[in-house]
Amino acid sequence: ARQSGLSAKLLKLLKRVIDFYHTAFCEDPRARQYLNQRGITDNTLLSDYKIGFANGTLLNALPGEGDI
Length: 68
Hints:
Layout lengths: L1 H26 L1 H9 L5 H6 L9 H4 L7
Helix pairs in contact: 1-2
């Protein structure tokens, strides 16, 4: 039971990280420009796969230990 609780917490954290990176991608024009220059322009693909952008601010957004 403890392992399933831990797994649920890790999955919740992973979802938050995925959403964070995808939001960063959607809000930063540099990210889309980078992919456009490489011929990746399919908005459905970018949305369905939650393409993200690591802008260096994730640590500021992570919850404190025990806050997941």
